Amino acid sequence: MIMRMPRSLALSSWCLRVLVVHVFAAVAAGQSFRFVHTSDTHVNPHRTENSNADRNARLFREISALGPKPALAINTGDVVEVGSPIEYGILREKLAAMAVAYYHTPGNHDVRWNPLGKEGFVKGVGQPLYQHIEHDGVHFFLLDSTVLLEHWGHISQQQLDWLEGELKKIGTEAPVILAFHHWVGREKVQIDNERELIELVDPYNVVLWLQGHGHSDLLWQINGVPAIMQKGLYQGSYSVIDIEKDKLTITRRSLRDPKKGDELVRDKSIPATEEVVWTKVGEFPLKRVRGEPFARGNRESESGLAAQWRTPLNAAVQSRLVRTGDAVYVTTMAGELVCLEPSNGSIRWRHKTGDSIFSAACIGDGVAYIGSADHNVYAVSCADGSELWRFKTGGAVLAGAAVAKGTVCIGSADTSIYGLDARTGSMKWKVQGGNLFQSQAATDGERFFVGGWDNYFRCIDAESGA
């Protein structure tokens, strides 16, 4: 197998979002191959016998010994339990038992409680957030359905744009397999923009959807295309998919469980028996057979209310809007601070950072202060969007700032609270915490008030940091 990566990309950087991997098998094009779908490995901090990591390792060895040997395996998220470096370290130890190329998508457990957010996943597994893998003419698209600090799912506009571009390159005939963590196309919506994703891929030859999150062994259809979900690998389940010239065959490995049914049970427990059951899930064509078009809800509001204006930002907004003076300020998950005209929504200016902006801007004396997941705090001129200064912290800056007595107070995922000179950006003081900071700081003009994930609420003097 050969992996090709542009020189400008580095796996250690959170900025690495996309990797196109060409996997060349030792068989002629058009011949059969197989791959494995696993999900929800949930590696926790325990190394004891029968821990999740131990159970996963047994199945890593089993998957590696399958005959014929799989060309690759795909894990659809919740790779670890809370995203800690210890858990990722244990995962890497156990992966020594895996002799098959193994690709991961992030799940909510990987990023939701991780002090480094999505950066922690990239560093932990050594892979990007989303990627394109091609094997013997079949194209696998692994997507990131996670949302920072949230349980629910969303496919970012950047990903949708990237996916559309990649699909156009391969055309409408090549078989496509989509894999990500949160399910789509069934009850209990998990991805808020599932409709946009499904409509985007509808013109292409999508032959299989791989999902996780629900801890159930299920098969359903999306626009006539099979979709499968697995229980957690530690629960004894994975699927073997055999690709032949004109069809794919899905066979599921599971443990006999009297509670098992065809419903979405979301049961994370380990089955009481170790009796292995192999079940043929079905045979499906490698040329898509179109079914009923997907229809769930409407994009437009059904309330009858009409917006006075709408401005496309081409990215999700996870923060609140700020109206001050004669301008509206909004931050986006594409890493932009955007200044809008309140009367008609026209964009006055945009300021681009290196990664997502989770919190709202703090406006004071004609300056907008923002933090970015690129580890930096920025001061931006409200007049024209020009950068006045930036200060680099040791982690993603998900929190919002407050300003008092010429000091900008803001917390970072590096577990520190910073007091920065509002005019120059130089550090005046630093307060050490015990976990990441997500919330916006507050002030009474003399002191700052900051809550953190270490379960402490702090009151800090604006001038001294005491």
3D architecture notes:
It is a single chain. The strands form six sheets. The protein has a seven-stranded mixed sheet with strand order 1-5-6-7-8-10-9, covered by helices on one side. Helix content is 12%, strand content 32%. A hairpin with a 6-residue loop joins strand 16 and strand 17 (347-352). The chain has helices at residues 52-64, 85-94, 108-111, 118-125, 157-170, 194-201, and strands at residues 18-23, 33-38, 72-76, 102-105, 130-135, 138-142, 176-179, 206-211, 218-222, 225-229, 238-243, 247-255, 276-285, 322-324, 327-331, 336-340, 347-352, 362-364, 367-371, 376-381, 387-392, 402-404, 407-411, 416-421, 427-432, 442-443, 447-451, 457-461. The model is unreliable at 1-29 (pLDDT under 50). It has two domains: 18-285, Purple Acid Phosphatase, chain A, domain 2 (4-Layer Sandwich), CATH 3.60.21; 322-461, Lipocalin (Beta Barrel). It is globular. The protein is built from six helices and 28 strands. With 466 residues, the chain is mainly β.
- List low-pLDDT spans: 1-29
| Overall 3D shape | globular
Q: End-to-end span in angstroms?
A: 57 Å
The main sheet comes to: 7 strands, mixed
CATH architecture classification of the largest domain:
4-Layer Sandwich
Strand content: 25-35%
